[in-house]
Input
Amino acid sequence: MDDVTNKRRAEWARVALTNYEIKAAQFGLPTTATAWARRGRAAAEAFATATNHRPEQHRMSSAEVADEVISDLVACLFHLTDGEAAPPALLRAVERVEHPGPHTPEQLHESLPGTSQTALLTAHLLVALRATAEDFGLDWASLAEDARGVFGEEVEAERYNARAAERATT
Output
């Protein structure tokens, strides 16, 4: 996903978030860890399709594919909520949900008071992605930290490139 703007990354994240919202409208919020994992997987697969990941990644059939797609999606979700909720706050809220279930939305709302609807829905999706990652035997904490690092690098690279372009014209 080189040479892609952070705005575009946020748009890709919006595809996954919209998928999550549509499923919630159709079927209600997930009430079990398995249901949360299914929602996360569906959103991640929608993201993989939207970002033109390799076709074999459009269906998460292995831990390796799940790791790559979920990590990319988490970094893009941080771009979507940039300026609304900081990645550490989102990740802390997700970590406070020990077992996803019917009370997860209330737990997230309590952990993220005063945040935007987009940030709150992003936290819901992050819980679902954590459940998906765990279903694949992935280390969520490591995956989320890696995604946070990628987000930071992408923000800094875009800032640097914009500043370099500005200097080139002066």
